[in-house]
Amino acid sequence: MKKQFFAEDTVKVAKALLGKIIQYNKTSGVITETEAYKGYEDPASHAFRKTQRSAVMYESYGKIYVYFIYGNYYCLNITTERNKPGAVLIRAVKPLKGIKIMAKRRGISINDKKPKSSVNLTNGPGKLCQAFGITKALNNTAVGDKIKVFSKPSKKFEIVEASRIGIKKAKNLKWRFYIKGSEFISKR
DNA sequence: TCTCAGATCGTCT
DNA sequence: GACGATCTGAGAT
User: Fold this and answer.
1) C1' (B7) to CA (A123) span, angstroms
2) What angle do CA A173, A147, A47 make, to 5 degrees?
3) Residues 144-183, chain A: which have Cβ under 7 A from strand B?
4) Angle at CA of residue A115, ends A114 and A119, nearest 5°
5) pLDDT over threshold 70, residue A27
6) A125 touches strand B (CB under 7 A)
7) CB of A44 under 7 A from strand B?
8) Closest residue by Cα to the C1' atom of nucleotide C10?
9) Of all helices (H) and strands (E), which one includes residue A13?
10) Among the residues of A66-124, which ranges form H helices?
11) Which strand C bases fall within 7 angstroms of a protein CB?
């Protein structure tokens, strides 16, 4: 995607990212679930306050923001909006290429005869980072530099708007979006 | 120094 | 399906 794609309203970008392909480190997948975080009006956003960690969201749009959470996991975001802090959290993807590599990185075994066994690879923000080998080292890199995002012709799909998961602040905001009917959706 | 998180997994019913 | 344990590090006090 062109950098300009990410200069728009965060909620708009979150929806527009659904169905796009994300590629990095010999693996790729279709984005199936996202969440919008507007730093200027959302207390749940890390950018609600400007800190060392959230600085990248203030600097520019179209950048990778990776943060470490719960002592174990990374979460992948892409910064949005011109002159305002915001980001879209990538919550789940459907694996396309490098499924065996993903399984190895995740430390789980998958059965080719059971397609459902691959669901557990990337149906959550921490899981997909592990499957793609995404770490904090990618923080502040431009989209298209190491992590690439692009569109490909795909079937039409319906977008579902829902409440965000695991959020204590600003629970009421319906800023989670996912592809209707997809198996690759985070659980809670 | 203290608190707790944009999550996951294992264990229980 | 529901719930508790768990890890490290960023931000608050």
Assistant:
1) 12
2) 35
3) 165-169
4) 120
5) yes
6) yes
7) yes
8) A53
9) helix A10-17
10) 99-106, 119-122
11) 6-12
* Phi, psi (rounded to 5 degrees) for A103: -60, -40
- Output the pLDDT for position A115: 67
When the pLDDT of each residue in chain A is averaged and rounded to a whole number, the result is 94
Higher pLDDT, A120 or A165: A120
Q: For tokens 């470490």, what's the residue?
A: A68
Q: What is the per-residue pLDDT across A50-65, written as a single tens digit (0 to 9) for each?
A: 999 999 999 999 999 9
Predicted model pTM: 0.96
Q: From the CA of A155, how many Å to the C1' of C7?
A: 40
CA A42 to the chain's CA centroid: 18
With 80 as the cut, is the pLDDT of residue A37 above it?
yes
Task: Indicate if CB(A49) is under 7 A from strand C.
Answer: yes
Q: What is the pLDDT of residue A106?
A: 95
Residue A63 in contact with residue A143, Cβ under 8 Å?
Answer: yes
